[in-house]
Amino acid sequence: MKETLKYYKPYIPMILLVILALFGQAMCELLLPKYMADIINSGIIPGDMNYIYRAGALMLLISLVITICAALGDYFAAKTAAKSSRDIRRALFRNVTAFSDAELDQFSTASLITRSTNDVQTVQNTTVMMLRMAIFAPLMGIGSVVRALQTSVDLAWTIVLALICVLMVMLLAFILVMPKFKILQKKLDRLNLVISERLSGLLVVRAFTAEKHEESRFDQANIELRDLNIFVNRLMAFMMPAMNLIMSLSGVLIVWAGSKLVDIGGLLVGNMLAFMQYAMHVVMSFLFVTMIFIMIPRAAVSAGRIGEVLKTEPSVRDAEDCIDLTDPIGLIEFRNVSFAYPGAEEKALSNISFVANPGETTAIIGGTGSGKSSLVSLIPRFHDVTEGQILIDGTDIRQISQKSLRDAIGYVPQKGILFSGTIESNLQYGKENAAEDEMREAAEIAQAIDFITEKPDGFCEEVAQGGTTVSGGQKQRLSIARALMKKAQINIFDDSFSALDFKTDAKLRASLKEKMKDSTLLIVAQRINTIMDAEKIIVLDDGLIAGIGTHKELLKSCQVYQEIASSQLSEEELRKGAC
Ligand SMILES: Nc1ncnc2c1ncn2[C@@H]1O[C@H](COP(=O)(O)OP(=O)(O)O)[C@@H](O)[C@H]1O
Ligand SMILES: [Mg+2]
Question: What is the pLDDT of residue 104?
Answer without folding.
Answer: 84
